[in-house]
Amino acid sequence: MSDVLDELRYCSTHEWVSSVDKGVVSIGITDHAQDQLGDLVFVELPEVGQVFEAEGECAVVESVKAASDIYSPVSGEVVEVNEALMDSPELVNDDPYGDGWLFKIRITDETELDNLLDADGYREVADA
Amino acid sequence: MLIYQQSRRGRRAAAQAPLQQGDLSGIPETFRRKQRADLPQVSEMQTVRHYTRLSQQNFSIDTQFYPLGSCTMKYNPRGCNTLAMLPNLLARHPEAPADHSQGFMACLYELQEMLKEVTGMQAVSLSPAAGAQGEFAGVAMIRAYHEARGDAARTEILVPDAAHGTNPASAVMCGYTVREIPSGPDGDVDVEALRKVVGPQTAGIMLTNPSTLGVFDRRIEEIASLVHEAGGLLYYDGANLNAILGKVRPGDMGCDVIHVNLHKTFSTPHGGGGPGAGPVGVSKRLQPYLPVPMVAQSEGQYRWLTEGDCPESIGRLSAFAGNAGILLRAYIYACMLGGEGMERVAEYSTLNANYMLKRLMDAGFDAAYPERRATHEFILTLHKQAKQLGVNTMDFAKRLLDYGFHAPTTYFPLLVPECLLIEPTETESREELDGFIEALCSIKQEAEENPELVKGAPYNLPVKRLDDVRAARELDLVWKSDKNT
């Protein structure tokens, strides 16, 4: 069974969102997602300043098996991306909830977080 | 070992040495080599051994069962090759005038006619040189059709989520936005979801039937009328034509434009990345837009149809009439089979797939769509084994190599977790199918009793488990001699 952290919120498309810190949330992919994808070889991140709608395509992760789109769980503007992934995409496999975060968004509407899954809700998705 | 590593100064193969100095007078001085090319210096026997050994290290349809799903790796009769290489066909220059090319053109014309008949389409152009180029031509014709009617509002192409990745790529290449349609739990296109998104912005839908999920979409007529009523066109991707050859015609399903992968269904060795041939067929309303050249016939004389004859054509996809060698092989193969033989292709390819599916399900494997009859291919999911035993689909696939089988398609389609897409084709014997089934059952037992054994496979091949990540991230494709490094 892969790790699902209680303090995060999740999408059924396997992204996680941290709690809000000064209007900003961190976003990444779940342990289950990295396990299903296999070893990542490339991560294409958005650019700082780009604005996304919730569920908009915003990044691509490529593993030895497949390339997958990453959807933004919430609407907002990208304020920081994890540059370390350019040289070390394996950080996503090694530490998906920590050093393997993808990008940070200044969230437009915090009530969008209520549409996301909690840890138990996501456990059901990942276990299916 | 590379042949360069066997090179020793002064060693040579007399058989390959030129008999006389070539005439260089036509080549300007600036383009002439100043130093000898850095070729390996080896004996004739070293050369023979080197390349024979390489060919033995290869997995191929000539040596092994090759059930690579959605690729139709069947036996390609040697006779097709032999006849396609008749001297008058082989030596024909592509610029030769039509009155010196009547035999070649007759073959192409008859192939056009046979493909029309077996697909139920109004007209066929043979010129696309690959499946994806056929898709590009097909979508370009859809675009030309809407533009000719002054209908600029159609900006979307619908693509089911089970489609080959080339479908959305071709649509984007032609300037369309792609909208994905989900599959239902039974593997058919979710018609209710389709109903919600089809509209005046719909240029068309690209459909593969049977789909890559290994099932025949039973609601195809409903899908066709939904899209047609909204003013869109129906594109049929012929990737899986082997399953329905001579039995069901895309034209009768209501398709407006199709492509056929001749290299899969009509006898060309493939799998090394080409060459291919992806002829397109169309309904009457798209006929003016077919790519040129095509062959026309009147009173026993064959002539090329070019831009002058077809002013609304989307144009040329290559300099000449497609991949001539493959078109000739396909023509010969189609003549050898005849209509009756084509039906047998569909019958035996689906029988073989269903036989394997049933036996593997009886042996405890999980089918992705256990309630559905397979077409010419089927999907197993090793989700259970991955979860309970930690042995995943890639491990099974690698272990199959040790048993002497080419692995089936793995991890495609993306919709089914831990999947194997297995396509036996019609040309395998029952004993061969049984051998593969028994190998899969043995591996399943190994996975249950000694998972580490399967996770470390392969053991019997020239190379062991490869480091896929390093291979993807540190490409090392070009040999450099020690002198230059």
How do the helices and strands line up, and which of them pair or pack?
The complex is a heterodimer of chains A (128) and B (485).
Chain A (H helix, E strand, L loop, with lengths): L8 E2 L4 E3 L6 E6 L1 H7 L2 E5 L6 E2 L4 E7 L3 E5 L4 E6 L2 H4 L2 H5 L8 E5 L11 H9 L1
Antiparallel strand pairs in A: 1-2, 2-3, 3-9, 4-6, 5-8, 6-7, 8-9
Chain B lengths: L43 H13 L21 H7 L2 H4 L11 H18 L3 E3 L5 H18 L7 E5 L5 H8 L3 E5 L9 H7 L4 E7 L11 H10 L3 E6 L18 E4 L1 H4 L14 E3 L11 E5 L2 E5 L18 H39 L3 E2 L10 E4 L1 H7 L3 H10 L6 E2 L8 E4 L7 H20 L1 H5 L12 H6 L12
Parallel strand pairs in B: 2-3, 2-4, 4-5, 5-6
Antiparallel strand pairs in B: 1-7, 6-7, 8-9, 10-11, 11-13, 12-13
Helix pairs in contact in B: 2-10, 4-10, 5-6, 10-13
Structure description:
The complex is a heterodimer of chains A (128) and B (485). Chain A is of the alpha+beta class and 128 residues long. Chain A has one domain (15-127): RNA polymerase II/Efflux pump adaptor protein, barrel-sandwich hybrid domain (OB fold (Dihydrolipoamide Acetyltransferase, E2P)), CATH 2.40.50. Chain A has helices at 31-37, 84-87, 90-94, 119-127; strands at residues 9-10, 15-17, 24-29, 40-44, 51-52, 57-63, 67-71, 76-81, 103-107. In chain A, the strands form two sheets. Chain A has a six-stranded antiparallel beta sheet. Chain A has a three-stranded antiparallel beta sheet with strand order 4-6-7. In chain A, β1 and β2 (15-17) form a beta hairpin. The longest helix of chain A has 9 residues, at 119-127. The radius of gyration of chain A is 13 Å and the shape is globular. By secondary structure, chain B is an alpha/beta fold. Chain B has three domains: 3-56, no CATH class; 79-337, Type I PLP-dependent aspartate aminotransferase-like (Major domain) (Aspartate Aminotransferase, domain 2, 3-Layer(aba) Sandwich), CATH 3.40.640.10; 345-471, Aspartate Aminotransferase, domain 1 (Alpha-Beta Complex), CATH 3.90.1150.10. Helix content of chain B is 36%, strand content 11%. Chain B has 15 helices and 13 strands. Chain B has a seven-stranded mixed beta sheet with strand order 1-7-6-5-4-2-3, sandwiched between helices. In chain B, α2 (78-84) packs antiparallel against α10 (324-362) and α10 crosses α13. The longest helix of chain B has 39 residues, at 324-362. Chain A binds chain B through residues 36, 38-39, 41-42, 64-66, 90, and chain B through 394, 411, 414, 417, 468-469, 472-473.
